[in-house]
Specification:
Two copies of one chain form a homodimer.
Chain A: H1 8-14, H2 28-43, H3 54-61, H4 65-77, E1 81-84, E2 88-91, H5 98-103, H6 111-127, H7 129-135, H8 138-149, H9 159-172, H10 176-197, H11 211-220, H12 223-233, H13 235-239
Antiparallel strand pairs in A: 1-2
Helix pairs in contact in A: 2-4, 3-4, 6-10, 7-12, 8-9, 8-11, 9-10, 11-12
The structure holds a DNA duplex (30 and 30 nucleotides).
Chain lengths: 242, 242
DNA sequence: ATCATTATATTTGTCCTACAAATAAATTTT
DNA sequence: AAAATTTATTTGTAGGACAAATATAATGAT
């Protein structure tokens, strides 16, 4: 546990941000937030390390405690710090995706962003084959098979069934961040496609690939076969953008 | 432009969060933040819409103005709102990746998160082939060729050269969010691999694929060939995890 | 001496008041 | 009607106060 309480004032006074005048000038809260993050980086803080208390930070940065609190509130939201009565602020393990999670509201996003999210899911689906084949276990395959067996009509797949099947694939990659990321993208993906689908002609795929097909290839096929099948499985989506 | 000022108090009082007692109980700031985001979603707010002023929100939510300000500060950081003197808060276009950007500090991330980030870049690299082939232009290819030509030794590629080449590929996908996301991942990817590389035996790839090879395939080859080549290009990284 | 219990000190969390700064809107002038 | 000026409104920042929740210190029991 480090106590790096002497660094803040230096950071704030030498902060390069003072020499830039961006389009919207920065509030004191913005400045304090930037200073604190820079301070964390330059001091090599690790989870568990203690920070100076709010009053001390306010004094060193020549701002009121309110401004410090507003900046700290932001960092708290990102999971970068935790507050302890008497002990003060402690560095914590950030949450990589909490920011994305909080802004993922289709009403607020631009058309460009919505399109980007839609495509991002497709990029990610096409990218996981190596991981699936390298990390699949007997148990994974059994569970995936059970999911597929519980899905009645392979041609008409509900959202829940999509989420169950693909969610299991994501889990099988052994990459929690990836799983969480894809899971975050799905509702918006669906929102985008629903909007598109309602406005366009129906796209027919000659030989659609089902969840069951994907399962079989994952069980006994090759990476390349799986990826090709995944592309066909997602063809209706690819056809809407490429 | 909508004025939805009657919804907030209802949201706060009926907020399901009041019935849950999570491990760490929520501060008022957390609650206000959650209420506001829910309010945005349920009211279907769009960029440009006006929000009630701080004082009014504080009254309706039965909290002090400071608490409202702390919550709003968070939303401001995410780009979801902008403040205007006299006019008040206005809904804005969120920034999908600003949260990720702010927490991407390897010292703070867990080993699991670092591994996830490392792999996520690989997943994404393997997933973009379809987009590259569908969207490449003559100009893109010329620019990519110039980048490759400026890179002297195909076997010893600097970080800057990596960023230049791969960054151009990302740009060619036509997906700005993807480009920005991958660009965010690169320093941490490098940090992870540098740590691994310094601790492990050197991995030799029998027939390494260079940037120039990738360029040629992208110009005149097929999606499958490109992806296979990309896998080989990244083989040293895949070998370190799979 | 060690462990458990209690008390105290410290910091955060929330509230309040005040006023400067930056517009957006209203009013006046041309 | 358009431009210039003034006013009103809201945000941004400051400072003070005190309750709540521990972390730390002190005390008591074994």
């Amino acid at each position: 546990m480090h106590d790096h309480c002497t660094g803040i004032a230096n950071i704030m006074t030498t902060n390069k941000l003072d020499t830039l005048e961006p389009l919207g000038s920065l509030s004191m809260t913005d400045r304090v937030e930037n200073s604190l993050r820079l301070y964390f980086t330059e001091s090599g803080f690790k989870p568990g390390d203690s920070l100076p208390n709010e009053q001390e930070m306010a004094q060193k940065l020549n701002v009121s405690r309110n401004v410090v609190r507003e900046a700290l509130s932001r960092l708290r939201m990102l999971g970068m710090i935790e507050a302890r009565p008497r002990r003060g602020m402690v560095i914590a393990q950030p949450d990589l995706l909490v920011g994305l999670e909080k802004v993922m509201n289709p009403s607020l996003l631009s058309q460009d962003n919505l399109k980007d999210v839609f495509e991002l899911r497709l990029i990610l689906e096409m990218g996981i084959a190596e991981f699936l084949f390298a990390r699949k276990t007997e148990q994974d395959l059994n569970e995936l098979e059970a999911i597929v067996a519980s899905q009645n009509d392979a041609r008409v797949v509900s959202k829940e069934e999509e989420i169950a099947f693909h969610g299991k694939l994501y889990e099988m990659t052994g990459n929690d961040t990836f799983k969480r990321f894809q899971t975050l993208l799905m509702p918006t993906f669906d929102h985008v496609f629903t909007g598109y689908y309602n406005q366009s002609k129906k796209i027919e795929i000659p030989n659609p690939v089902t969840h069951h097909d994907l399962f079989k290839i994952l069980k006994t096929g090759t990476v390349e076969e799986f990826r090709k099948a995944m592309y066909t499985h997602l063809a209706v989506y690819f056809a809407s953008i490429l």
